[in-house]
Amino acid sequence: MWTNLVHLYTLGGMATVVILGAGISGHTAALHLRRMLSKNDEVVVVTPNSNWNWIPSNIWVGVGKMSADQVVFPLAPIYKRKGIVYHQALGVAIHPEGDSATKSYVEISYTDPTRAGEKAKIPYDYLINATGPKLNFAATPGLGPDGHTVSVCTPSHAVEAAHKLAEVIAKLKAGTPQTLVIGVGHGTCTCEGAAFEYTFNVEHELRAAGVRDLAKIVYLTNEYELGDFGVGGMTFSQSGFETTSKLWTESLFRERGVHAILESHVEKIEPGVIHYEQLDGVKRTLDFDFAMLLPPFRGVGLSAFDAQGGDISEKLFAPSGFMKVDANYTPKEFADWRAEDWPSTYQSPLYPNIFGVGIAFAPPHQISQPRKSATGTVIAPSPPRTGMPSGVMGKTAALTIADRIKKGTSAPAHIASMANMGAACIASAGSGMRQGSAAAMTMYPVVPDYQRFPGSGRSLQDTFGEIGLAAHWIKAMLHYMFIYKAKARPLWFLIPE
């Protein structure tokens, strides 16, 4: 049974902007739009989750240093206070041409317990797809909390990971050696930085518990070399010298006694055994007592239909399920990749009133050089779209939409290409105000531009890394600062994305 919401969103409103998803990108867009538009304009958020999650701190939940309540807060009170219409629902389909009765609209299915399963149509003048990823555990048999490994992708996953880790520590204290495997669970995974963080937080906790000597920690990754992080590695400028993220990362692995297995695609996971293939085509196994392997991502499964009801999903979305935007999707060899292949406005090429931001947009290709094993298996990290770039994309789309509502549809689009965008990342290597550490890294641009910056593809003056206690303090400060921002507290908009 459809609920007719047409009049709710058209009477008395100059324009309606619908945002699918309330992660970093979508929530940022919603708050900025509400700040920039008039009260007659409506900002509508549709998200299946009732809580907002500061995902970077899930790492600390996963080692028992934070509770789930410390990394989430309910969205409804924030949106009520800011005057944003909120639906706890799943976006199901986009109808960019509308139908005989309704202009452009999205179909939704409520996940709100009081309306679970109820469906509705929400018309829009502008639409932002910020749905984020589907955690594709099914890509690897046996992967994930429903299989034989743990995850830190969600707060509940991270809580389970912390419980499992506590069990491992108890066994170590009883004198039973344990093998812990941390990394990525498929050859096309992204978020190698999160796997890196969890690896060294676990190592830190084992040392703090006095059981490190009985534990073997293995980092299992699809990266061609350590320090790739899905961005092709970095060349750092440090104290007048140049070094690479490969050497920088390798030194940390040696210092902490962590063994790395590179160039790997996990084929399946059985109880206590990981089956994987490497670039040489050889298939191997790895025994484990505890494993946290991140899943690959896909689009969330939105469909799209034209005015006649014909399925146009393949036109609006890439095969990965992510939305096509203003990128160059022409297949190219690695040597022919260019910075200008990457999107800058995040508009759909088919419908200029639709935007895809954050993880929801389809990248034109990887950032790291793609490789295949001797048997043809793709082993290539997917491009990361971390919190800082995702927030910038959300704000950029919001700025464009606000200008076009206030000035007319011919107003130029704001731009924010990852090939002309810097990013700062602080990767925790262990929590603690006196004993903690973190790796602080910056890079410019995120996507290498070998024409502008021959050699490394990035500006040496703006790409560097340091590790130490001070970086941990900054990481902890950012946790509280960005939750303050996401709660739209006074002057929240002054805190940069």
List keywords for this structure.
single chain; nine-stranded mixed β-sheet; 24% strand; FAD/NAD(P)-binding domain; 10 helices; alpha/beta; 497 residues; four-stranded parallel β-sheet
The CATH class of the domain at 2-135 and 298-418 turns out to be: Alpha Beta
Helical percentage: 10-25%
Distance between the termini: 40 Å
**CATH architecture verdict of the domain at 2-135 and 298-418:** 3-Layer(bba) Sandwich
The number of E-state strands comes to: 25
As for the CATH topology of the domain at 2-135 and 298-418, it is FAD/NAD(P)-binding domain
Runs in which pLDDT lies below 50 for 5 or more consecutive residues are 1-12
Protein structure class: alpha/beta
Report the principal-axis shape. globular
β-sheet strand percentage: 15-25%
Mean pLDDT: 94
Explained architecture:
The chain is an alpha/beta fold. It has a domain at 2-135 and 298-418: 3-Layer(bba) Sandwich (FAD/NAD(P)-binding domain), CATH 3.50.50.100. The chain has helices at residues 6-10, 24-36, 58-61, 75-82, 155-173, 192-208, 245-256, 313-316, 387-407, 469-486; strands at residues 2-4, 16-20, 42-47, 51-53, 72-74, 85-95, 105-110, 119-123, 126-129, 134-135, 178-184, 215-220, 235-238, 241-244, 259-261, 264-270, 273-278, 283-287, 290-294, 297-298, 303-304, 354-356, 423-428, 438-443, 464-468. Strands 1, 2, 3, 6, 7, 8, 9, 21 and 22 form a 9-stranded mixed β-sheet that branches. The chain has a 4-stranded parallel β-sheet with strand order 15-12-11-19, covered by helices on one side.
A few lines on this structure:
This protein is an alpha/beta fold.
